[in-house]
From TrEMBL, chain A:
Its main location: membrane. This is RagB/SusD family nutrient uptake outer membrane protein. Keywords: Cell outer membrane, Membrane, Signal. It comes from Fodinibius salsisoli. Belongs to the SusD family. It is found in: Cell outer membrane. Residues 258-474 form the RagB/SusD domain. The keyword Signal applies.
From TrEMBL, chain B:
Residues 1-26 form the signal peptide. InterPro entries: Beta-barrel_TonB (IPR000531), Beta-barrel_TonB_sf (IPR036942), CarboxyPept-like_regulatory (IPR008969), Plug_dom (IPR012910), Plug_dom_sf (IPR037066), TonB-dep_OMP_SusC/RagA (IPR023996), TonB-dep_OMP_SusC/RagA_CS (IPR023997), TonB-dep_rcpt-like (IPR039426). This is TonB-dependent receptor. Residues 121-225 form the TonB-dependent receptor plug domain. Gene3D superfamilies: Carboxypeptidase-like, regulatory domain, TonB-dependent receptor, beta-barrel domain, TonB-dependent receptor, plug domain. Residues 385-992 form the TonB-dependent receptor-like beta-barrel domain.
Length: 474, 1038
């Protein structure tokens, strides 16, 4: 028994040693700096900048061309016949499917951008900062960018999941639109006007930008009155006017000009930073060329300009083989394709990896055209004509005088095509206005009604969330 | 001769003096003869006077004589394989003894169960013990290597590279990304591997296969537990053992590549399809790259051990040297180990101390296995060296069609392919790593009463490792093209100051130091009350691993001579890179208990409970988890109703359930992505468009906990015909819950980077069967036949929504071959199904095809019949892990000869011929590929033509089953040649002499990086299986 007592004592000592067991297990990290010791602090603005930065991804330089212009009657795939650009031929010929990489790429990119925006919003909300005005502005900027992405998504895919709510179920379009409108309205409330921002903040989302997108959202929903009201708010803000010369809008000197409402910023000097290779993918291809030669204007678009006698915008939009560009560059007559997109042409930075080209998302001219279209639908013919003719006046075209609602509508639609060609809006317009089937079939493409109005949900997504149903006929 | 004489004389003098000394004090002499049961004399039997170190052994006639101090002394007779006898002298002068063989009844075989031992017959779980004799039948660097095919349910995949470590998978793959290695316990000390232990130092290895057995090791036991017990000395005079073997090895499955003329034909067909240039039929060179690259490997292994002991102290000391040279030039490995194990019995047995210490030194000069890949791919038309001594490279004069780097000014010099000269990979590789492992433990058993023991054990392992790699960058660059000159390099170097690409050379060094310790304390209570037998163990274990640091450094432009390879001696033209890391240690704290009870050795019940805490989970402070298990057993043959059953001598049924953990899991950390240049986190603002740096969150910091395994086991042990036929059968179901996956985030989620999460369940179900037959036919002839068979089915039974679709098995050319999906095995193949070959353009135009299809390309099945060949048409094709493993081991002894034969096979798996598939054009092909190729419309619809795509498809997926003769050994023993020399055995052995397989590459045993979603099962850079022939000798003397 004595021995047992001794042993009990030994065991007691051991228990004493291991008694503070959690202390023994709580080993201090030596390899990675633990969060509480981290001296690296990120400001909310850094996460907001990260959301803007998302728009400079390569997706916007290649996939984006495919799903907005190449797919439409404005552009052909271009490049060499053997170079498909992965899937641009499928988009050009309306033969895309749920496995088409460009569609998956934009779907994913928009959701990742939405994710960055949501993270930035939450981070900003919880961040200790004294400047409440800055806090709400940053949140407003992130909400604006989030709404832009959802607006792309809902127009292309119809019912789509709202990331912040449920990743596996597609929310009805109506809900998605309400979500977009809520974000934009709240952004419009807090964002400063273009003129109020400090100079170094030029390029951030403004109240005008939020209102413009709101007006475009209502136009999409054929809520003419709201579309008109918001367009008028932008016009009456006095922040914007049409640039005198259409030709310079897409040149370096035209960046953030008087008509600029929102554009993706890019800089050419080292360290260059812009949409990666935006100018390269669309640069002229072949000997003496400077790019890959994708997204080439169609003869149909040339004809459209010619039918209006619209030389100014035709020349500003299209590079013709053999022409001498405004900056003196001679384009060889033997380059691979007859035409290229001039709006993507960068004089200083033609083939550089990081383009210096600001991509215009919303211009004052489009606001005027939205106003014209909404007013026309509301029977306010005079308002409509006046807005439309402001845009035509700049490019020396005759004023539209017709009072016929249908004729005026056609004229406004055509004006949109000519004014905004290669500004990544054509396919949306064709679908929105219900012209897609007729126009595309007329253009020799097999547009299937009841199918091609929406893109297929990408296969990768469906495989992982099978509850999500595919769009019809894919 | 002179030296020998001196030695003999010295020995004689020593013996004489010993005799004189003993005679001087002797008061009583005893002599006699020791026989076995058949009346034959037994030489070499140890005879010791109890309580002294005094003793002798029998001579060739079995006779002995010795002098003792007192007539009342007791003699101890011992001999391996026979029962030890203690005989009091009681005044006798002649004592003749008959030794009885040790009854090899199963009932007396002990197995190690973790914190204790148990008799095999009392087990309720599934534990397989392998003894030293079995282990050392086959030469091996690491003990597990020698056990391939010998333990059912344990899949051992060999790696024949010098210093290579075998992969051990017990009862199927249960984890995709966590640690896959079993836990090793060496003499009570948990370690990660047993590479530092010479197989000849091992007494036994116990495989704890089922969860109920392994759960005493809790959170690290999910991949099974392997308990290694090293040798100890036994009471008696010093026993010396010396073993040496030497051997050669070469490639087992040589791959026949196309020769020069065949290559020309193939190349021209391939190029014609894309309107490329054509090669001349007449070429200067016809190189067999494998002949140039491969040497005969060789190896030597020597060991010397001495052991013995007295009543209170036993000792064992050994030295082992293993040296190998591989198939490639300068590919070397050697290891030396020293071991000293002592046991002390103190205070009349109240305290026993066990002390083990081992030191292992190893050095390795590894060579890149990529050389096998390059040798396979490089054209035979390229010379090893040009006549001017420069390395051959695949330059070709496209104008003349001659494979040469020379040509006239207006001729085009191109390349046949993108690969280099395989010899340069070897010649410019200069790596060396050294390791020292110190491992030891000290255990004290306090025998408090005859039924209560307290044990405390302290174990520690210290590891020092250093590596260095020297790359002569300038020579490498120059060797890449025979027209390059030193002057060009120099010019580039001067034009790019500080740019390390143009440094003359670089040296990379790593120093690593780690330490781990464990301290176990436990009490054991073992007592029988009538027919009730109770055994209880309870204790505490604490452990700290991963204490240590690593230093890594790189410098450029150091002196060329090896003696000056110091980072310090580098020029200051280039920045040095220095990394220093202190590892975050891992602590473990565990409380464990085990209760075993049986009634009359008929009915058994046992249970264990372990509570484990691990610092791995410090981030959540959720340290603790419970690991219970229960086992039941029924020994039917001990029931009275079985009576004296003639046919069945032993029959036991077992059932168990247990729970295990895997703490070796990957962790997430929140990564905020930032970038100092142009990246999509950054943006520009303002009229000057100033670059502003932003940030984004890549992946979530999702908390991860251990993988949990739950396993059922049902088993039976049956012995027939006087235990000559023994068999064990087990069935199990092992479920890994919350399997950790690297989740590729949903496209519509906010996460941009992959992250780890627990999202799947994997079930391994299997059957294990072993049958052994042994018979002593006569005095002179005995034999045994053992077979083992195991079947395992692996299936992912559940995947959380959104986690499907983890892909892997990258071929390195953008193609992937594996995908995770519910209902499929872990690491399942997933690719296009090849259905014939396109014969002409018409056929392609009229059927769904993949982009870029040409006649002669493989045609893929449009599985979903939507007219498009895309990802949705990919199919699952099983797994690289075999479903069936089987082994056959035959041994026989006839008089002085012994022979053994072991075979091992697997079936039910597929392996991927990545070497043939991943071609970019211009690579060489196997002769078989050349012969079978499509050559034009209707030539064949099975094999593609010379111009083919590099898309992954089941065409390249081959049956991975094989049957290999592992070992054929013939031995001849001489007994008792002279006094003290008990036995000399000579043997000759062929290792892996044959393999039967349909696989056309070097080896179907493709471990790759071991990860089910990595390169496991894909042949790209595998080291070939080797066959070897060796000669050896064992000498036992006293």
């Amino acid at each position: 028994m004595y021995k047992l007592k001794k042993i009990s004592f030994v065991l007691f000592l051991i228990l004493l040693f291991v008694g503070c067991s959690d202390d023994f297990l709580n080993v201090a990290s030596r390899e990675e700096i633990e969060a509480e010791d981290s001296s690296e602090n990120y400001t909310p603005d850094e996460f907001v900048i990260g959301v803007y930065g998302s728009f400079t991804d390569f997706t916007y330089a290649f996939s984006w061309l495919g799903v907005t212009e190449i797919i439409s009657d404005n552009a052909d795939k271009g490049s060499s016949p053997s170079d498909t650009g992965t899937d641009k031929h499928l988009l050009d010929n309306l033969e895309f499917s749920s496995t088409t990489p460009s569609i998956e790429s934009v779907w994913t990119k928009w959701y990742k951008t939405i994710g960055r925006a949501t993270y930035a919003i939450e981070y900003t909300e919880n961040f200790e900062m004294s400047d409440e005005q800055l806090r709400s502005r940053l949140i407003g900027e992130a909400k604006f960018l989030r709404a832009v992405c959802y607006f792309y998504l809902v127009r292309y895919f119809g019912d789509v999941p709202i990331q912040e709510q449920d990743l596996t179920q597609r929310a009805p379009q109506e809900e998605v639109y309400q979500y977009i409108i809520a974000d934009l309205e709240s952004a419009a409330e807090v964002l400063p006007e273009k003129g109020v921002y400090a100079e170094e903040d030029l390029g951030r989302a403004t109240r005008g930008a939020a209102l413009s997108i709101l007006s475009k959202v209502y136009l999409q929903r054929e809520n003419w009155q709201q579309a008109l009201d918001y367009a008028n708010q932008v016009i009456e803000s006095g922040q914007y006017s049409l640039a005198d010369n259409y030709e310079v809008i897409w040149r370096e000197e035209g960046e953030n000009g008087p008509g600029s409402i929102f554009e993706i910023q890019a800089r050419g000097e080292s360290t260059a930073h812009g949409i990666q290779q935006y100018s390269t993918t669309q640069g002229a291809r072949g000997p003496s060329g400077w790019g890959w030669g994708f997204n080439t204007p169609t003869q149909d678009l040339v004809d459209a300009y010619d039918s209006e006698g619209d030389e100014i915008r035709k020349d500003a939009t299209i590079i013709f083989a053999g022409e001498t560009l405004w900056d003196g560059r001679e384009v060889s007559p033997s380059i691979e394709n007859p035409r290229y997109n001039e709006k993507a042409y960068s004089s200083a930075n033609a083939g550089a990896g990081d383009g210096d080209k600001n991509m215009r998302i919303m211009r004052y001219a489009e606001v005027l055209l939205i106003k014209a279209e909404a007013a026309n639908e509301l029977g306010q013919t005079g308002e409509a004509q006046s807005a439309l003719n402001q845009v035509r006046d700049r490019v020396d075209l005759d004023r539209v005088t017709t009072g016929d609602q249908n004729e005026l509508r056609e004229a406004i639609w055509k004006e949109r095509r000519l004014e905004l060609a290669f500004e990544h809006d054509r396919w949306f317009d064709l679908l929105r206005t219900g012209q897609a089937a007729e126009v595309m079939q007329g253009h020799g493409k097999n547009f299937v009604e009841g199918k091609h109005e929406l893109f297929p949900i990408p296969e990768e997504q469906l495989r992982k969330t099978p509850q999500m149903e595919q769009n019809p006929n894919y | 001769m002179i030296a020998k004489d001196i030695f003999a004389k010295g020995l004689l003098a020593l013996c004489l003096s010993l005799f004189l000394v003993t005679a001087a004090y002797g008061q009583h002499s005893v002599k006699g003869v020791v026989n076995d049961q058949a009346g034959e004399p037994l030489p070499g039997v140890n005879i010791q006077v109890k309580g002294t170190t005094q003793g002798t052994s029998t001579n060739a006639q079995g006779a002995y004589s010795l002098t003792v101090e007192s007539e009342s002394d007791t003699l101890i007779f011992s001999f391996i394989g026979f029962q030890r006898q203690e005989v009091p002298i009681q005044g006798r002068q002649e004592i003749n003894i008959t030794m009885t063989p040790q009854a090899i009844e199963a009932g007396e075989e002990l197995v190690v169960v973790g914190y204790g031992t148990q008799e095999q017959v009392d087990l309720t779980g599934s534990i397989k013990r392998v003894q030293s004799e079995e282990l050392n039948k086959q030469p091996a660097l690491t003990a597990t290597e020698a056990l391939q095919g010998k333990v059912s349910g344990v899949n051992i995949i060999k790696n024949d590279a010098p210093g290579g470590t075998p992969t051990v998978i017990m009862r199927g793959l249960g984890t995709a990304l966590g640690g896959r290695n079993p836990l090793y316990i060496v003499d009570g000390v948990p370690v990660d591997d047993i590479n530092n232990i010479a197989p000849s130092d091992i007494e036994s290895i116990d495989f704890l296969k089922d969860a109920a057995s392994a759960s005493i090791y809790g959170l690290r036991a999910a991949n099974g537990v392997i308990i290694v017990t090293t040798k100890q000395g036994t009471e008696g005079a010093a026993q010396f053992e010396a073993d040496t073997y030497v051997g050669y090895n070469s490639v087992l499955n040589k791959v026949n590549m196309a020769d020069g003329p065949e290559y020309v034909t193939y190349f021209n067909e391939e190029n014609a399809a894309v309107d490329g240039f054509q090669l001349n039929q007449n070429q200067q060179y016809d190189t067999d790259w494998f002949d140039e690259l491969l040497n005969q490997g060789r190896f030597i292994n020597s060991k010397l051990s001495v052991s013995g002991g007295s009543e209170n102290i036993n000792y064992f000391f050994s030295y082992n040297l293993n040296a190998e040279e591989g198939l490639l030039d300068n590919q070397k490995f050697w290891r030396q180990t020293l071991r000293n194990n002592n046991n002390y019995r103190l205070f009349d047995g109240f305290l026993t101390l066990d002390q083990n210490l081992s030191i292992s030194f190893s050095r390795e000069n590894p060579m890149p296995f990529g050389a096998f890949n390059t040798a396979y791919r490089q054209s035979p038309l390229v010379p090893t060296f040009y006549p001017n001594g420069r390395y051959g490279q695949p330059f070709v004069n496209e104008t003349t069609g001659e494979v040469t780097y020379e040509g006239a000014a207006d001729e085009t010099i191109g390349r046949l392919n993108t690969h280099g000269n395989p010899l340069t990979a070897i010649d410019f590789n200069n790596e060396e790593s050294n390791a020292i492992t110190l491992q030891g433990n000290l255990a004290a058993d306090f025998n408090l009463t005859d039924y209560l023991t307290f044990t405390t054990r302290l174990g520690a392992t210290r590891f020092y490792g250093d590596t260095r790699a020297f790359s002569p960058l300038r020579q490498q660059w120059i060797s890449g093209d025979p027209t390059r000159t030193v002057a060009q390099y120099q010019a580039n170097k001067e034009a790019n100051p500080g740019v390390t690409d143009w440094a003359d050379n670089t040296l990379f060094v790593t120093d690593t130091e780690t330490f781990r310790w464990n301290w176990d304390n436990y009490l054991n209570f073992s007592k029988s009350f009538d027919d009730h037998n109770v055994d209880i163990t309870a204790g505490i274990s604490s452990e700290k691993t991963g204490v240590g640091k690593r230093f890594r450094g790189r410098a450029y432009d150091i002196p060329e001579q090896e003696q000056y390879w110091n980072l310090d001696l580098a020029t200051d033209q280039y920045d040095k890179i220095v990394e220093h890391t202190n590892f975050t240690p891992n602590t473990l704290l565990s409380y464990f208990g085990r209760v075993q009870y049986n009634y009359d050795r008929r009915y058994y019940i046992s249970g264990t409970l372990r509570r484990d805490g691990s610092s791995q989970f410090a981030n959540t402070e959720d340290y603790w988890e419970l690991f219970p298990s229960v086992g039941l057993g029924w020994t039917i043959s001990n029931e009275e109703f079985m009576g004296e059953n003639e046919a069945i001598s032993f029959l036991k049924l077992r059932a168990s359930w247990g729970r295990l953990g895997n703490q070796n899991v990957p962790f997430n950390s929140t990564v905020v992505s930032t970038d100092p240049g142009s990246a999509s986190q950054n943006y520009v603002f303002g009229p000057a468009q100033a670059l502003r740096f932003g940030a984004s969150v890549g992946s979530p910091a999702r908390d991860i906990s251990w993988e949990i395994v739950e396993e059922w086991n049902l088993g039976a042990d049956i012995e027939f015909v006087d235990s000559r036929l023994t068999s064990t059968i087990d069935v199990y179901q092992k479920t890994t819950k919350n399997l950790i996956l690297l989740v590729n985030p949903l496209p519509n989620s906010q996460f941009e980077g992959d992250y780890f999460d627990q999202g799947a369940e994997v079930v391994n179900q299997g059957l294990e069967l072993s049958l052994n037959w042994s018979d002593n036919v006569s005095e002179d002839f005995s034999y045994n036949v053992g077979t083992s068979f195991s079947y395992n089915k692996n299936e992912i039974t559940e995947v959380e929504t959104g986690f499907e679709g983890l892909t892997g098995g990258s071929l390195g050319n953008g193609q992937i071959t594996k995908r995770l999906e519910e209902g499929q095995p872990l690491g399942a193949w997933w690719m296009y199904e090849a259905v014939g070959v396109w014969q002409d353009e018409m056929e392609i135009a009229n059927n769904p095809s993949i982009g870029g299809a040409l006649p002669g390309h493989l045609r893929y099945n449009d599985v979903n019949e939507d007219g498009v060949i895309d990802e949705r048409d990919k199919k699952f094709f099983g797994s690289y892990v075999p479903n069936y493993n089987y082994g056959i081991n035959i041994g026989a002894n006839y008089k002085q000869f012994d022979v053994s034969l072991d075979a091992f096979g697997v079936a039910g798996n597929k392996v991927y011929d990545g070497l043939s598939n991943t071609r970019f054009g211009g690579e060489n092909i196997r002769e078989e590929t050349f012969t079978n190729r499509w050559t034009g419309p209707n030539s064949t619809s099975e094999h593609p033509g010379a111009n083919r795509d590099a898309i992954a498809s089941d065409y390249y997926l081959k049956d991975g089953s094989y049957l290999r003769i592992n070992n054929i050994t013939l031995g001849y023993s001489l007994q008792n040649i002279v006094n003290h020399l008990n036995r000399v055995r000579f043997y000759i052995s062929a290792q892996n002499p044959f393999m039967i397989t349909d696989y056309p590459g070097f080896t179907p045993e493709l471990v790759g990086n071991g990860s089910p979603y990595g390169t496991a099962g894909i042949e790209l850079n595998a080291y070939p299986n080797t066959r070897s022939l060796l000669l050896g000798v064992n000498i036992d003397f006293q």
